[in-house]
Amino acid sequence: MLKIAFHPIYKYQLPPGHRFPMEKYELLPQQLLHEGTCKAENFFEPKILSEENILAVHTKEYFESLLNLTLDKSAARKIGFPLSETLVKRGRIISQGTIDCCEFALNYGIAMNIAGGTHHSYADHGEGFCLFNDQAIAAKYLLKKGFAKRILIVDLDVHQGNGTAKIFENNDSVFTFSMHGAGNYPFKKEKSNLDIAVPDGSGDAVYLQILKKTLPKLIEEQKPDFIFYLSGVDILETDKLGRLNCTVEGCKERDRFVLQTCKDLHIPVEVSMGGGYSPEIKIIIEAHANTFRLAQEIFF
């Protein structure tokens, strides 16, 4: 059964005028239920992430500054959300959801988080709407528990996974692969194990050619026993933060290729949703929903 992490707190209330599309976290599960892709039993509500699992990745000073709401103003501005007790709780629940998804993926082949993909979060600070790095926390959890020995993070959000790259720069058990827009945020990029900077305006054909040439070879070389997939839909031509000019169908083909590859090679995969900032919310929902539709089609 496809298991999907979702918690009402994912839809965090932002001040009026804030441009981050929080409503997608509520509308996406509604759409999946409405169309029959998922049933109520597919969804589960994560609990709150423990301090122990947070401190496996993040520094105690950073965590306590969030917990006590004492983060200085410049650091808070880098995150981009108004800091609050609810926001910190939300970040912890999202990360626990990704851990839970990993355990489900070990049993079912795949599991998905309606939120997550918070790859701009570093060990000691947050950036770009990211407080805690959910996939980094979950990767450390898998390694500590002995559930995985070799992990591949496939980050296909339009923005480089800078925080994730930095966290694992000296960890030979985790290979970070980021395929992102060359001219996009962050403008000072970190060094992943493999970075592919896709030129602005490339479109479906170029994007998919690069991915299909790269991923199978990478898996063959690295031989991961677990994969994290960050499936951001901000590669779309409609995305106001994008620039890669991919279509909804091209984005769907990207997801199909990644998920089918994992299924064919019997490698469990956890999927975190990542970014999506098209002006029309229906486009964001359709592109994200495709990822979940394909998970059902390919794995179940």
From TrEMBL:
<dbReference type="InterPro" id="IPR000286">
    <property type="entry name" value="HDACs"/>
</dbReference>
<feature type="domain" description="Histone deacetylase">
    <location>
        <begin position="18"/>
        <end position="280"/>
    </location>
</feature>
<dbReference type="InterPro" id="IPR023801">
    <property type="entry name" value="His_deacetylse_dom"/>
</dbReference>
<comment type="similarity">
    <text>Belongs to the histone deacetylase family.</text>
</comment>
<dbReference type="InterPro" id="IPR023696">
    <property type="entry name" value="Ureohydrolase_dom_sf"/>
</dbReference>
<protein>
    <submittedName>
        <fullName>Histone deacetylase</fullName>
    </submittedName>
</protein>
<dbReference type="InterPro" id="IPR037138">
    <property type="entry name" value="His_deacetylse_dom_sf"/>
</dbReference>
<dbReference type="InterPro" id="IPR044150">
    <property type="entry name" value="HDAC_classIV"/>
</dbReference>
<dbReference type="Pfam" id="PF00850">
    <property type="entry name" value="Hist_deacetyl"/>
</dbReference>
<keyword id="KW-0378">Hydrolase</keyword>
